[in-house]
Amino acid sequence: MTSVLETSGPVVLPALLLCDFGHLAREVGRLEAAGAEALHLDVMDGRFVPQLTYGPVVVKAVREAAKVPLEVHLMIEDPERSLEDYCRLGAEIVTVHLEALAEPRRALAAIRDHGARAHLAISPGTPVTRAEPFLDACDGVLVMSVEPGFGGQAFEPQALDKLARLAAVRRETGGRFHLGIDGGISTETIAAAAAAGAELIVAGSAVIRSPDYARAITELEALARAAT
Ligand code: DX5
Ligand code: ZN
User: Fold this and answer.
1) Is 72 a domain residue?
2) Relative to the CA of 209, which ligand 1 atom is closest?
3) Is residue 53 in contact with ligand 1, taking CB distance under 6 Å?
4) Count of beta carbons in the 10 Å neighbourhood of residue 112
5) What's residue 6's pLDDT?
6) Which ligand sits closest to the CA of 17?
């Protein structure tokens, strides 16, 4: 299988946030059997965002259960303290919030040094111009299309302008970073996100709340591909 990190077309990354954590390995297996090419794990500390989810212990369990690459989305204060842990657990992508970083360039370099791909997330209130100085230091940018913290929120369309702007900067500068989007992705919103340039498209409730994961993923990816 081609790695999701090498594909050129848009790919849906199911987010585990709303899955059945009482049967975590079974959920991972169901998502992989449904065609998920990578999984998105939302680490929240109850400080950077209101909700507290899970940390390295659960990420390790998912890593052991899963065959596909993992993106670990760190919504935590002072993420630099735990970057190494998540890289060592085998996350292929470690995504850190610009708003949480005192030294973004140092954090991104640390992720790369520990063998993972360094992605930078920006919350809805953060303009793209704040991320631009760091684009050469990251392997991807995750544009948040909801306020980070909860699954099942409504898509914020301003994210589309951010994606388009980042895609333009990438073209102009010959940048090699991937573009991701996270929050409120559904059959209603995915085409616009893909058309604006999103390649790694996180979908939580649209997959997990569907009775048929395979059908949900296939339908979302078909809509995304048709839009590019
Ligand atoms: C929100 C998380 C998302 C969440 C997405 O803070 O970063 O990854 O799981 O869920 P949906 O797709 O339902 O908005
Ligand atoms: Zn996320």
Assistant:
1) yes
2) 13
3) no
4) 15
5) 73
6) 1
Q: Which residue segment(s) compose the domain that 198 sits in?
A: 9-226
Does the annotation mark 42 as catalytic?
Answer: yes
Q: What is the mean pLDDT of each run of 10 residues along the chain (228 residues)?
A: 69 98 98 98 98 98 98 98 97 98 98 98 98 98 98 98 98 97 98 98 98 98 98
Report pLDDT for 3.
Answer: 67
Starting from the CA of residue 184, give the closest ligand.
Answer: 1
Provide the number of structural domains found in the chain: 1
Supply the pLDDT for residue 99. Answer: 98
For residue 149 and ligand 1, the question of a CB distance below 6 A is answered with yes
Burial bucket for residue 197 (CB in 10 Å: 0-12, 13-18, 19+): buried
Residue 71 CB–ligand 1 contact under 6 Å: no
